[in-house]
Design brief:
single chain; 339 residues; alpha+beta; Rossmann fold; Dna Ligase, domain 1; D-amino Acid Aminotransferase, Chain A, domain 1; seven-stranded antiparallel β-sheet; four-stranded parallel β-sheet; globular; binds adenosine-5'-diphosphate; binds magnesium ion
Length: 339
Amino acid sequence: MKLAIHKSLGSFSERWINYCDENDISYKIVNCYDSDIVKQLDDCNALLWHYHHANFTDSIMAKQLLFALEQSGKSVYPNSNTTWYFDDKIGQKYLLEAIDIPFVDTHVFYNKKEACSWIKTQDFPKVFKLRGGAGSINVKLLKSKREGLRYAKKAFAKGFKKYNGWIPFRDKFKKFTKGNESGLNVIKAFGRMLIPTEFMKYSPRERGYLYIQEFCAGNDSDIRVIVVGKRAFAIKRLVRENDFRASGSGHILYSKEEFDIRCIAMAFELNKKLKTQSLAIDFVFDSSDNPIIIEISYGWHVKGYDSCPGYWDNDLNWVEGKFDPYGWMIENLTKESSL
Ligand SMILES: Nc1ncnc2c1ncn2[C@@H]1O[C@H](COP(=O)(O)OP(=O)(O)O)[C@@H](O)[C@H]1O
Ligand SMILES: [Mg+2]
């Protein structure tokens, strides 16, 4: 037994297990929450775990366990190069600035006075974000200085909920009225507000910092490119109606013609510098129509990518046809750990 997989519903694990079964790769299923997990991995040289940012337990211990195993010489997915900045937009700002990759101008403040005096010198709109979150839930357009100051004051007082159940409910309800969402999902989102998840109950409020990005106006979509090793694939997400936010909109385009090849080239270039096992990069276009990064991540929602019609190799050649990035992860890990 050499490979260990933590199984969780809707994660990469289902695909990893299928790949191992189909290719006669032996594995064992483990539960990373067990206190003796390190011992359980004695007979394995690799662990794969697609942990989730909105699972409270994962958020307090997944990186710690993975890094510890990595230090001991085991191969892990995701490893530290792949995941230290995951769900941490502040970390991403420093990282992308440090390696000189086109990243949208981003400002972060750690005290109210400095934040407020800066805001007073600025033009608006600008984009406010919390450091964590996905699906645009913690991203908001600040339309005026006044609104900017209001957010700054809140950031250094009671702060913001990490997951505000009202926002997905409102989004889903809007989609429902246009016939783009099922009633069941609206009811579920309503239930989420009444019966909060552990993540909603236990997560501390976000405060003590203010994160603001320059607004790249005029984008009707964002482009997400995912690099796994020497291959990349992409989706285009259209913004919500009367909104600037694409991620989580559910309106996805897949055909190759949708993608500016500069995004794919930049994605490979970034991954060459970061040396990750998987990297999802969100691009918009700046006022000179150049692709610019707004956010990076290690994971993604599996189902949203099953319809990709092909991928690019690292010479930017298009390879048409179905493919299995979860299998690529195992192939790459196997090479790395010479299982
Ligand atoms: N600086 C920006 N300028 C223009 N649009 C942006 C900017 N930042 C984010 N967006 C839009 O908002 C969406 C969500 O932002 P993102 O930083 O990717 O957060 P999330 O982690 O929720 O996906 C993006 O998909 C993009 O459409
Ligand atoms: Mg995003």
